[in-house]
Amino acid sequence: MKHAWVVAAAVLGLAVALGGCQKADTGGKKLVVGFAQTGAESSWRTAETESMRKEAAKRGVELRLALGQGKQAEQIKAIRSFISQKVDAIVLAPIVETGWEPVLGEAKQAGIPVILVDRGVKVAGEGLYVTLIASDFVAEGEMAAEWLAQRMGGKGNLVELEGTTGAAPAIDRKKGFDETLAKKYPNMKILMSQTGDFQTAKGKEVMEAFLNSARGKDIQAVYAHNDDMALGAIQALEEAGRKPGKDVLVVSIDGVKGAFEAMVKGTLSATVECNPLFGPITFDTIEKVLAGQKLPTYIKNEDKLFDQSVAAQVIGTREY
Ligand code: GYE
Hey, which of 27, 124, 141, 188 has its CA 20 to 30 A from 290? Predict the structure, then answer.
């Protein structure tokens, strides 16, 4: 399939020409930015892509968007294509943490700055990317663990729905959660833990398998690395005649609209917000980089936890 970005570029170019949006201050030259996105695995991800598109249009930037279909090889191919097109900057949401040195080295060689959004990479060597804009995923896992431990009185049985294997948020949300339980709440047992790839359907499938297993009846809580998997788990629990949010607590991460609706309904117990609206800060960062400003290598997004007790009064203010 011809890269989707060709179409997106044409549309955006047209929008800019039609809309007469104010141009980024690049001495009149229109900025061209390549965005290697993971794909469209979750409602969180779709909100991030939309935020990037909206902000680019607002600033008169030509955004060339490549959706990686959940494959690192596709993202690497897209970055190489952006390099050959001599874009002004590249934004990468790396699907997994490792294996990026060669292509990031090529971008550096070509003098094209790379900004990482929402997920980090583990690379050997300096200066392979300018900065990472992201949440602290370990802290998110810790917040979820503390909330659940409070509600369960520090004891009980739970299962864990992990994100995409090898992805920074999956690795760190597991680390923060599991280590908090191991250190502070040894009577809280993780009976089973498996990836649902950040997707609702896979979250449901894995939860069904957990419920059909020998320990299924002992499950008292679910920790999901994102809301979409948690919503799938809630479906599975309801179909198995369990009461999610009541006899089985469900805690997740992202803070998407669907999670707030489920909290108001009483099926989701709590969610740790992880804001996907990266458009404004990413284009601010690109403009600073291209203006030669020195930036920290990590720009942290702040997160907080919401539970059922505040969901009804907060839901109306949610942007994604
Ligand atoms: O939590 C999930 C998405 O990288 C932080 O990716 C992001 C995660 C987010 O699929 O919904």
Answer: 124
Q: What is the pLDDT of residue 1?
A: 44
CA distance 108 to 127: 8
Q: Residue 173: CB within 6 Å of ligand 1?
A: no
> Measured in angstroms, how far is the CA atom of residue 226 from the centroid of ligand 1?
7
C-alpha–C-alpha distance, residues 203 and 61, integer Å: 37
Decide whether any atom of ligand 1 lies within 6 Å of the 198 Cβ.
yes
Q: Residue 51, exposed/middle/buried by CB under 10 A (0-12, 13-18, 19+)?
A: buried
Q: What are phi and psi of 29, to 5 degrees?
A: -75, 135
Do 48 and 276 touch, CB atoms closer than 8 A? yes
Mean pLDDT computed over 36-65: 97
Atom of ligand 1 nearest to the CA of 256: 11
The mean pLDDT value for 263-291 works out to 98
How far, in Å, is the centroid of ligand 1 from the Cα of 291? 30
Whether 45 lines ligand 1, by a CB cut-off of 6 Å, is: yes
**CB 174 within 8 Å of CB 198:** no
- Which of these, 210, 280, 274, lies nearest to 42 by C-alpha position? 274
For a mutational test of ligand 1's pocket, the pick from 254, 302, 303, 320, i.e. the residue with the most ligand atoms closer than 8 A to its C-beta, is: 254
- Region 145-167: mean pLDDT is 98
Mean pLDDT of the chain: 93
Contact 303 CB / ligand 1 (< 6 Å): no
Q: Would you give the distance in Å from CA 244 to the centre of its chain?
A: 24
**Helix, strand, coil in percent for the chain, rounding step 5:** 45, 20, 35
Q: Is 200 in the pocket of ligand 1 (CB under 6 A)?
A: no
100-153 tens-digit pLDDT:
999 999 999 999 999 999 999 999 988 999 999 999 999 999 999 999 999 999
